[in-house]
Design brief:
Elements: E1 19-23, H1 27-33, H2 38-58, E2 63-70, H3 78-101, E3 105-109, H4 117-130, E4 137-144, H5 146-162, H6 173-178, E5 190-193, E6 212-215, H7 225-237, H8 246-254
Parallel strand pairs: 1-2, 1-5, 2-4, 3-4, 5-6
Bound molecules: 3-methylbut-3-enyl trihydrogen diphosphate (2 copies) and magnesium ion (MG).
One 3-methylbut-3-enyl trihydrogen diphosphate (IPE) binds next to helix 1.
Length: 255
Amino acid sequence: MNNIKPLAKQANNKSIPQHIAIIMDGNGRWAQLQGKGRVAGHKAGVESVRAVVASARKSNVKALTLFAFSSENWQRPAKEVGVLMDLFMYVLTKEVKRLHKHNIRFQVIGDLSRFSDDLQKKIAKSEQLTINNTGLVLSIAANYGGRWDIAQAAKKLASDVNQGIISLDDINEDSFNEQTSLADLPTLDLLIRTGGDCRISNFLLWQVAYAELFFTDTLWPDFNEKKFQEVINCFDQRERRFGKTGEQARKEQIL
Ligand code: IPE
Ligand code: IPE
Ligand code: MG
């Protein structure tokens, strides 16, 4: 895909990832370690979201995509799912004005049709409020699955062919990418997962193609601005070769 290309170095000679995604995992274990119920971990995790959003904004990251609820998370006990939905509603009500004040564009990606009407309305209203903002783009993945994202893009292209809007030959990596959830954002540079597990859990399967992966044992409620900056520094140390030799990649970095 032609949008996979090395990053230009910043003025301070440090590569800042333009698009960072985070699998925010470990809330339940964090709460259990404190002798509390899992819900306490989800509540504490909201503070880490605030910290990471502020830090991304200050570092001039262009896009931050956070995995809040997967398409598989519906399988959890109904009570926990209910609390997560209530928390989502509460955070939207409380935080979106602050995001707007900081020029952040807010959006939710995923299959929203399974959410309550109230939540869907709240999401639409929040997105609408911030739609013209030009700063950080904050995407929350809710009832999101990477396979769903790929399947819905395939369905859209098939429908366009069916209706004669495009021809079969128009389907390629770029036109497919255009139908995926984060198409209008810079290519994903860095994927972080907290909580100690080294897996993708059906997150951004298409988008992860050439992202740097970073796994940390830190549980999500313990993740903070300092830890986030440490990961960004670590990203700067990685050599991204995009299939080329190390020698070629280093030459391009200097140019
Ligand atoms: C991540 O934390 C939050 C969601 C999946 C909603 P978990 O709830 O998965 O926490 P652990 O992995 O059980 O510790
Ligand atoms: C991934 O965490 C989903 C979110 C962080 C929202 P899970 O805790 O659901 O992942 P698995 O089930 O352990 O892979
Ligand atoms: Mg988990």
